[in-house]
Structures are given as C-alpha cells and as structure tokens.
Amino acid sequence: MTKYVFLDTETTGLDPHKSGHRIIDLAGIEYRDGKQTGHVFNMKINPEGKKSTKGAFKVHKISGEELIGKPTFKKVAEDFIKDAHLAIYNASFDIQFINSELNRINYPSSINDIWSEITCEMELTKLKFNSEKNISQDNPCKRYGIDISNRKAHGGLIDASLCAELFFKLTDERSLEKYKDKRKLMPKPTSPAMRLNLVKQVFKAQDILSFSRNKELINTVFKSD
Prior knowledge:
225 residues, alpha/beta, disordered C terminus
C-alpha cells in the first residue's frame, strides 16, 4: 500500500509572499498499510523575528517566547522531506508556505517535486459532499464522528493526526453510512450548472496542487492501494 505522510503547519499569518509570514510549527505523521509507522516529525520553528498576527495567535496560541532558541526551517528541512504520498487538509495554504521556506534557503526543488503525490483533503471533502464552498476541518470530522474535543488550539501535530483519521474516513464509503442520519455538512448543488462549477473547481485545484502525477483525480483520491 502507498506510504502516506499527513502534514500540517501553523504560521505567523496568512501570506508568506506579500507579508513575509513564516512557518512556526510543522508536523508530519507517516502511515503505511493504513497504520502509523512510528515515524513522526513535530517541531516548533524559529521565524527569525517575524511575529504572529493577532488573528494567527488566536488560532494556534503559540507565543513568540516559545520560539526563542528553536531551530530555523533551514536546520529542520531535511528531517521531514521524504518521498511519499502527501496529504494535507488545506493543501494550497501549507504548500505556499513550505515552498516559500524552501525558496528562502535556496532549496533546489519545490514541494511538488519532492513528494510523489499531493492530495488536498479539503478538495476531497468538497467533492465527496458536493460543496462549492471551502469547508473547515472541524465540519467533516464532526460528520464522521471524529473526536476533536481535545483540541483547545490548532497545532501541527494534533491537526496532522486529525488529517490522517479524516483521510481514511473520506476514502472509505462504509464510514459515512454510520453517520448518514446526522445533519448535512453542506447543501448539495441543485442544478447542473452548480455541479459543473464544482467539477471545474476541483480540477483547477488539481492542476495547482499537483494532485497526482498522472492527473487522474478520481483514481488518485479514491484508489485502493
């Protein structure tokens, strides 16, 4: 079965390009044959003077004092880079930050070149539930009965763990049947035009995020290894 790494980041803000925001928490959990291999990466990262915005701090609760003396991204980059199928909940967000950090250290490749495949779980969730809108990670977790009560703030490791659990639920039709009587995550598109727009969004995201090397969305995100 494919080796998966479920990844999450926490950052000082929303935009690494215009505002120069940085990664301050990075986590990856490796799975093979649907089980954890024991290989876990979790590291607080020194943003080299960049402070978190009030909005970002409200999300992750990581203070600047906690990051003093922590390693820079350059020192930890090789520890988490490995060839695998990468799964991230909101992939476009995390990828832009990781690529920005790689660019800062003059790394010769982008994340799209380093990893064999990249799956965006939010796009997978939108496809699964016929939604055109972005969906927070909490919503599908609640839909599938995944316990998020222990998460008092967002963090790389806990969000990566939820990402892993959610991925296997999303790719297992039986898991949804158990919760089919719960409230709907999002209303289904009611017209052919809405459905067509959803498909266009998914395939646009596929091209941007390199969903898979063979560009076959359905085979990639729903395949059985």
